[in-house]
Recover the amino acids of this structure.
């Protein structure tokens, strides 16, 4: 199931997923400055401000009430985040999130 992330608990879980996947797959490829910049962008307070100002929407892909994928749209139509839990790679979750926001 895909839905807009709206609760504090879901936001916390979504940001945790993003952080874990980023650290596993992206950090080795980023410069120290790039890592710092990314962490600033996914800071809970910063993301919350973007959401409250209707500048960003976060969608979660849920399996058994657990977020296993997150897609962020910087409004009106820029994908700024797309992360899927490592255990669920190659299962069509990123594609499903993309198709959901595309329609």
């Amino acid at each position: 199931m895909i839905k807009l992330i709206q609760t504090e608990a879901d936001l916390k879980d979504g940001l945790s997923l993003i952080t874990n996947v980023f650290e596993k797959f992206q950090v080795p490829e980023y410069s120290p400055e790039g890592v710092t910049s990314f962490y600033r962008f996914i800071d809970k307070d910063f993301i919350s401000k973007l959401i409250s100002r209707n500048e960003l929407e976060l969608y979660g892909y849920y399996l058994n009430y657990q977020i296993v994928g997150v897609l962020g749209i910087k409004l009106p139509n820029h994908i700024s985040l797309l992360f899927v839990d490592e255990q669920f790679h190659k299962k069509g979750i990123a594609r499903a999130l993309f198709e959901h926001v595309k329609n």
Summary: The longest strand covers residues 66-74. The beta strands are 2-4, 56-63, 66-74, 78-84. The first helix runs from residue 8 to 26. The mean pLDDT is 97.
